[in-house]
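queue> pop job 88
queue> type: inverse folding (structure -> sequence)
queue> payload:
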């Protein structure tokens, strides 16, 4: 059983991602703001985190930076989800410590494949994939 933490403040976005990741092999955890995400991540130690970038309280990139500084979270795959994944945004997202990013609304066919691929390659990474 893999624990997947979904961080998303928009209820429709959350529903879409939960539907896309509905899988008997996954236990889905939900957080609706940055502080809840940090708390839940630290006490539940998910195997992968899906991170909305624009969040109340603490934004998704700051949550990612804080988690990357937390012992045990160096290699947990984090997928950023953002409405605007272009130009400098990509650099900011990767620099914050995310492994991948996907654009909103998530593609319900592609998204679970990205999650499965990252779960399968969960090892301490020095950064994102090359590029
Ligand atoms: Mn949001």
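queue> result:
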């Amino acid at each position: 059983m893999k624990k997947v933490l979904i961080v998303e403040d928009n209820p429709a976005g959350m529903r879409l991602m939960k539907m896309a990741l509905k899988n008997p092999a996954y236990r889905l955890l939900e957080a609706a703001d940055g502080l809840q995400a940090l708390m839940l991540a630290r006490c539940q130690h998910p195997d992968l985190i899906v991170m909305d970038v624009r969040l109340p309280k603490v934004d998704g990139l700051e949550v990612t930076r804080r988690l990357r500084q937390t012992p045990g979270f160096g290699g947990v795959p984090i997928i950023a989800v953002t409405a605007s994944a272009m130009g400098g945004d990509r650099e900011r997202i990767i620099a914050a410590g995310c492994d991948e990013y996907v654009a909103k609304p998530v593609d319900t066919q592609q998204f679970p494949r990205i999650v499965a691929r990252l779960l399968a390659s969960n090892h301490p990474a020095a950064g994102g994939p090359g590029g």
